[in-house]
Design goal:
The protein is an all-alpha fold and about 120 residues long. The chain contains five helices and no strands. About 15% of the residues are buried.
């Protein structure tokens, strides 16, 4: 297993993606649920339960989760040829802006991820 140093907001984005996948699978996929639980514990062990709870219950995390959920739904439609790629790109950029906001609010640092082709 490779461990990478990632922005904290990136890790919460990953968690919200796992949560989205679990919901879309109706919590039936044991492997997805195990991955989600492992992710939660890894994050908690590194930032503490108090900060984890503060973030997971924040409007920013809810916005990130909702954006990822919508993004997965749109991608499902795109697989059937019903969505323009620009819609997906726009939503993905919105997701990036939410991660930026979370990183600055909860950790006081800027994200290291660099988006090309967008005016910030």
């Amino acid at each position: 297993m490779i461990k990478l140093s990632l922005d904290e907001s990136y890790c919460f984005d990953y968690l919200s993606i796992l949560e989205t996948k679990c919901i879309k699978e109706n919590e039936q996929n044991i492997e997805l649920n195990d991955n989600k639980i492992k992710c939660i514990f890894e994050i908690m062990n590194q930032i503490g339960t108090e900060l984890y709870d503060k973030i997971i219950n924040s409007p920013e995390y809810k916005e990130l989760f909702n954006t990822n959920y919508k993004l997965f739904s749109i991608i499902d439609l795109a697989k059937k040829g019903g969505i323009d790629a620009l819609v997906i790109d726009k939503m993905n950029h919105e997701r990036f802006k939410i991660k930026k906001k979370m990183q600055e609010k909860f950790f006081g640092t800027k994200v290291r991820e660099i988006k090309l082709g967008y005016e910030e």
